[in-house]
Amino acid sequence: MSNELPNIPPLFNALSIWMCGMLFIYFLPRRKHFTPAAFSITACAFLIAEFLLMWATTAFDGMAFNLVMLAFALLTLVPFLLLSQANLANCLTYCAYSFIFGSFVVSLIWQICIYLEAIFPFWRKPLLQLLIFIFFFSVFYTVLYLLERQHQVQLQEMQVSLISCAGTIFMAFLIYIVSSLSFASVELPFTVTTYADAYTLRTMVYLGGFGLLYSQHALQCESFIGLERDTLQSMLNLQYENFKLSQESVDMVNQKYHDLKHQISLLRNEFDSSTQLSHLDQLEQDIRIYETQNKTGNRFLDTILMTKSVHCQNAGIKLTCVANGHALDFMDVMDLSSLFGNALDNAIEAASQLEDPEQRLIRLSVSYQKGFLCIWIENRCRETLTIAKGIPFTSKKDTRYHGFGVKSIYKTAEKYGGTASVHAENGWFELRVLIPREIRER
To answer: How many whole angstroms separate alpha carbon 95 and alpha carbon 100?
Structure first.
């Protein structure tokens, strides 16, 4: 095959794949110890390294060139591992996307440059080539940025499975091999005999690969959204079912409590033994929690607080509550169950992990202030607790269902036109919910 056309400049090749990689890294959760300056310096250092590798191996062809591209792909993977907090499967997957997407963009732009040079010879000047690349890079990567911005939440939270990762890498490998066949030998199947046709074939293969991999990526994101929606709905239904069971139990216990209280009073008058009286004192102490239960003015909130108070007592947690339950009358029962159930469950779990019993504290406040329903829940937590994208970081190995409770709270607040926020500092975790009350009264 005669060398009729120049090859893609190594700087453009390296820059295109690097830009695509940085775009994905931008949306992935990043490591906190990298300041913006350190992040930029590290990213630029990898761009220089990738360019030097491509520049130093410009004359390579055949198997040597393919080995260079393998080394280039591994070098592209390193920034994902170093700059982002994504696991290995996610890093490998998005690195494969970056390699194919970036190769498609630079191949297509080079095809455009070749076409323009054939019609307008003065376009062959290096400066004009650079301007063309800058223009088309800006267009393509702006479009890709807008497409990926729709999946920002999924890129932050989605965990790619090992099977899906292996499938993506295999597809990217096949796309690269098919796109490079004509540059290896004209004797192989699906090859062409001129460089012009080889460039066209490569661009078309990368176009198909881009469409295939991006469709897979979009499908993964949509599946994650569906799973998250179904999980949140299941949690909401479960919370509501638990609430209904708790309501029935509390009503029954309240009836039994009042009967038992009168029976203990009658028994005291009949017993003289100090031992028997001490047993009655203990029995009275055990049921005293029902006498001190919260009476907020909202029957549903009272039920939730009653149930969680029992959990707190069993875990040695002190729960204090100052709540105007009437301010919650406009909210649906399922939303109340989801919001307070998830919030108190998270608070109880965090407080119960503390070794010092004196530190196990939860405070709850519900009030109506200046046209807003204000819900504030505060609990003691580990000093090292951090918040990432509005979700408390977990040390659990299985993170698939982590954060759904907090997400459910956010969605409940949004449903009523309000906002929710979380904050952790100095061993305290705070959840604040603000809902404009006037909107619901219109």
So the answer is: 9
DSSP-assigned beta bridge partners for residue 377: 364, 431
* Separation between Cα atoms, residue 337 and residue 371, nearest integer Å: 23
Q: Within 10 A of 68 (CB to CB), how many other CB atoms are there?
A: 17
Mean pLDDT of 156-173: 88
**CATH number, domain 294-441, options 3.30.565.10, 3.40.50.2300, 3.50.50.60, 3.40.1160.10:** 3.30.565.10
Distance CA 263, CA 195 (A): 99
Selection from 327, 261, 249 nearest residue 292 by Cα? 261
Tokens of 189: 């199947």
User: Of 316, 336, 318, 334, nearest to 326 (Cα)?
Assistant: 336
Highest mean pLDDT: which range of 64-73, 308-317, 412-421: 412-421
CA 211 to chain centre: 25
**For 97, what's the count of Cα atoms within 13 Å in the CB-facing half-sphere?**
27
Which residues face 318 on adjacent strands?
A: 361
Domain assignments of the chain as residue spans, ordered by start: 10-230, 294-441
Q: Which of 14, 124, 15, 137 is nearest to 72 (CA)?
A: 14
Contacts of 252 (CB under 8 A, 6+ apart): none
Q: Which long-range contacts (CB under 8 A, 24 or more apart) does 135-143 make?
A: 136/105, 136/108, 136/109, 136/112, 137/15, 137/16, 137/19, 137/105, 137/109, 140/105, 140/108, 140/109, 141/19, 141/20, 141/23, 141/105
Q: How confident is the model at residue 185 (pLDDT cuts 50, 70, 90)?
A: low
| Dist CA 330 CA 333 (whole Å) | 9
Query: CA 380, CA 374: separation in Å to the nearest integer?
Result: 20
Would you say 86 and 29 are in contact if contact means Cβ atoms under 8 Å apart?
yes
Q: Which residues pair with 374 in a beta bridge?
A: 367, 434
- Judge if pTM exceeds 0.70: no
Residue 284 has pLDDT above 70, yes or no: no
Residue 335 exposed, middle or buried by CB count within 10 Å (0-12, 13-18, 19+)? buried
Identify the helix (H) or strand (E) that includes residue 378: strand 372-380
> With the C-alpha atoms ordered 114, 116, 119, 121, is the resulting torsion angle positive or negative?
negative
Q: Are 85 and 29 in contact (CB under 8 A)?
A: yes
Q: pLDDT grade, residue 440 (50/70/90)?
A: very low
